[in-house]
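Can't paste images in this forum, so I'm doing it all in text. The chain is below; anyone willing to post the predicted structure tokens underneath?
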Amino acid sequence: YGEKDFMLWDSSMTEKGGGHQDVFFRQMMLTGHRTPILFDMGGGKPTLDNLHDEVGAYVGGLTMGNPSHIEQTTSVEQAKQLPFAVAHLFCASGNDSCNSIENKYNAHCWTDRVDIEPSTVQSEKYGSQVSWHPGFRTHKWIGRRLALVFLHALEEALTLWEKTASTEGNPLDGKHWHISQEEQDIREKLKQADASKTACGQLMADQEKPIQICTTPMRGATQWAPRADPDHSSIISLLKPSPNGYVPGLFENPVNLYNGRDPHFPSQKIPDGEVDVATIARSIAPQSTHRRVLAEFHAEYSSRLENTRQQTTKYPQNQTKQLRSRDLSGDSTVVPGEGWTVLNHPSGFCDGTSNAECKRQEGDGCLMGGHNDSRSVLKGDGLSGWLVFDLKDVKEGLFMARTEIWHAHNSNPRTEGWTSENNVKEGRRGLKAPPPPLPDDFTIEVAVNGEVLYKVDEEGLKARCS
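Text version of the structure:
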């Protein structure tokens, strides 16, 4: 995956106002090694304009309105005369064919194939194929416009390279392509900003959260999907194992019924005679048999390549199996527990890209849906013991966690049948099953380096969650 060069906000339908977008973009610029170009898909231009004026952020966006150069669809019959790519894309007043389900969506939950026979009856369509969501025509239109942004940028870069190299020679001077100083300047301005005067700070204040979030680089992890590099961006990748080596995993651990790319739906075939952009993009011009040899590959080049890889991977991956940490087992009572587990996570590889093979598990009624969204939970209760994180490179000591306190008691299958913490006969705190909704002595304790620093009881937690 590498470093982020381009970050797109596409959540304005649910996150209203500029506060959430401002939080997101500030963190994207503060963290990692690169300061990405920030892009918006509509509704967030004021936020991007403010960041550009305030810190010099690189910004851009796509307008979502009906462009005048694309012919509108006036009727079903007239649409048959339009190019396939624009038919039913934008409709004239009085014609609603663009919002009809049959014109808007062309994907299904399953298509007949000889190698797989689902044991569960497959639904006719996805559950989210509704009139207010964009269909395949809109997605294709947006995707091609985004592709053109990169193609035009690449053309500009190659043109500049060719022009400069013709007068200054190769390799190009770093001033033509190094932007590290500009990125550093942007970050320093973000860190020095008066957070209380930003949309980020106002949102944090309204939610009674620390406004330092707006000026402090944060790192995070989640069990939700999709997420990039799923194995290394999960919460469980940060956990310290218990003394017996237990690290929470998927309790049910579903597996895919099949793997590999799905076949195309017949309904998604480009009609004969129409422009097939994907086929054009995959086409490769005939290669000349007389190729110029730039350099032979010697051992010294191999050594340089390995050095380059090491230099580009110095940013540590926070994986439990790689960490050498303090031994907390001595006199400390903070010992990783054995009663935590992950629930409701789909099967397969769920990174949200076209390479994902997600949620193809037994019992699913839409195997070819490609639906990566899930909100799996790392669940524990009064018998689960401590959840110990092994975090690297902590500088500011600012920690936040999303906690769901509405889950029913006795809903953790990992501790089913247990009567004491970590299921030991003589535990530290032999707890009884709590009465609903929370036990009277409910507390969450937070420890750093084996020392309990902070406690919050039921009333304090409810006050923070209200």
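The first helix runs from residue 19 to 30. Confidence is low (pLDDT under 50) at residues 293-329, 427-435.
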